[in-house]
User: Which sequence fits this backbone?
């Protein structure tokens, strides 16, 4: 499908993975599996919105274990994926936590609160014997307390929409990503225009991330976009990789250059 010596890559990342979102993702995942040899990074939420605990769904947990056996990666994506902190008190916080998103779980956490959530997620991964390398904050929003907490934990990376950050020192690596807002028809149309422009701008970029959300899967227009974009990037010679495998490759190249 792609030349192993070609260093350009595409990373397929599924956000908000939980038992309740599997029905959204299943047809798309099956279509990707039919292509053959395309690993995915699954951003797993331990207890989505406090109503969807992984431990209550053993069949889904077995499915995640099977994905690991196929060569996929599981990463920690918050704990609740839900902002449970006291109401915002400043205009900026009100915008970020009530207009931009209601799901910025780690946007306002202290170091101690962030450590507690992160350790709970790490312990869950350990109970299932799932390797854990990365943490992605819901909506990519992290407080300074969260950043402090991440420096203390045995994780290898975190990310925002355009970068991966090596932990514990937050060394930045450019990793541009496409992401949609698919909740309405006009948002899907605008997302398509912007994504096409960005893909053209990033044609020579070493990596392009495709950041999918469950809502994208609920509309044929957006679901087809992601599948066709993946196929096109593979046809152009990009190597499909998980986030941790691509990051390990970059670290190896940096070490060799040094």
Assistant:
């Amino acid at each position: 499908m792609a030349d192993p010596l070609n260093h350009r890559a595409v990373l397929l990342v599924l956000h908000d993975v939980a038992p309740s979102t599997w029905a959204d993702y299943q047809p798309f995942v099956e279509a990707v599996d039919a292509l053959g040899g395309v690993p995915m990074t699954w951003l797993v939420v331990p207890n989505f919105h406090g109503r969807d605990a992984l431990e209550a769904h053993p069949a889904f947990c077995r499915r995640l274990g099977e994905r690991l056996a196929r060569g996929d990666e599981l990463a920690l994506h918050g704990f609740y994926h839900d902002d449970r902190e006291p109401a915002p008190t400043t205009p900026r916080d009100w915008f970020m936590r009530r207009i931009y998103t209601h799901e910025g779980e780690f946007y306002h956490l202290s170091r101690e609160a962030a450590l507690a959530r992160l350790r709970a997620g790490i312990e869950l991964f350990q109970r299932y014997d799932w390797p854990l390398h990365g943490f992605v904050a819901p909506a990519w929003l992290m407080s300074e307390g969260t950043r402090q907490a991440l420096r203390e934990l045995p994780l290898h990376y975190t990310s925002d929409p355009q970068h991966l950050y090596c932990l514990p020192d937050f060394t930045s690596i450019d990793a541009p990503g496409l992401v949609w807002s698919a909740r309405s028809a006009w948002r899907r149309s605008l997302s398509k225009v912007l994504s096409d422009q960005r893909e053209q701008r990033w044609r020579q970029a070493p990596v392009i991330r495709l950041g999918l959300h469950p809502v994208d899967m609920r509309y044929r227009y957006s679901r087809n976009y992601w599948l066709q974009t993946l196929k096109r990037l593979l046809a152009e010679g990009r190597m499909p990789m998980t986030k941790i495998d691509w990051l390990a490759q970059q670290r190896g190249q940096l070490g060799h250059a040094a």
User: Anything to note?
Assistant: The longest helix spans residues 111-127.
